[in-house]
Design brief:
- This protein has two domains: 2-159, no CATH class; 161-199, no CATH class.
- It has helices spanning 2-48, 53-71, 78-102, 105-108, 113-135, 138-159, 161-183, 189-198.
- Helix content is 87%, strand content 0%.
- Helix 5 (113-135) packs antiparallel against helix 6 (138-159).
- The chain is mostly helical.
- The longest helix is centred in the N-terminal third of the chain and has 47 residues, at 2-48.
- Keywords: Membrane, Transmembrane, Transmembrane helix.
- The chain crosses the membrane at residues 29-47, 53-72, 84-107, 119-149, 161-180.
């Protein structure tokens, strides 16, 4: 009886660990998706040379909804919940207005199209970080920091893509040369055993 109890306990612990890991992944999923969507928007803008106005507005509204959903369980009382909705609505409306000021044709003529995507990502990152600070949410603040860090990373990658290609070719060449040296040429074992069998 004790062996079956011990086995059931051992089976129960990994299930709890797996369910805990699954819950953690599920909780972090909205933040990861928002970051991936923001980077995908910049990448598309750089490739197509057209700013995605509706895309950035949708992404700002989606992050605003994530902010409300994140803080909602911690708020007690209807008055606190209404205050949360209004403060987040005003915050993200301000971000949307700022984004649309950048997209006004007079301002947009001063910026090249790829730069417009980076500026919009910067504004979205700032809005997300400030929302995380006001809500005292580490995940939202970190999402804003990650978006902000993606701006110089994307521009640096775009400028140095040629060097990355050269480095990749160099590494492939080195790997091939080390592989050939390690092997010492084509294998000769089957022919040697054939000669030994004839002798």
């Amino acid at each position: 009886m004790s062996e079956t109890d011990a086995q059931q306990r051992e089976d129960h612990v990994p299930q709890q660990a797996r369910s805990g890991m699954g819950r953690l992944v599920w909780q972090q999923l909205p933040y990861a998706v928002a970051l991936l969507l923001a980077i995908a928007g910049v990448a598309y803008t750089n490739v197509s040379h057209q700013p995605l106005i509706g895309y950035w507005e949708f992404l700002a509204l989606a992050i605003g909804v994530v902010c409300v959903i994140t803080k909602w369980p911690e708020i007690e009382g209807r008055e606190g919940q209404i205050r949360l909705i209004w403060t987040q609505a005003l915050h993200w409306i301000a971000v949307l207005i700022t984004m649309n000021i950048i997209l006004v044709s007079g301002v947009q003529q001063l910026l090249p199209t790829p730069a417009t995507g980076l500026v919009l990502l910067t504004l979205l990152a700032l809005g997300t970080f400030l929302a995380g600070i006001s809500l005292l949410s580490l995940q939202i603040a970190f999402l804003g920091l990650a978006m902000g860090a993606a701006v110089p990373a994307i521009s640096w990658l775009k400028q140095s893509i040629f060097f990355f290609l050269l480095g990749a070719v160099l590494l492939i060449g080195l790997a091939i040369s080390f592989w050939l040296r390690r092997d010492g040429g084509p294998p000769r074992a089957p022919t040697e055993t054939k000669h030994q069998a004839e002798a």
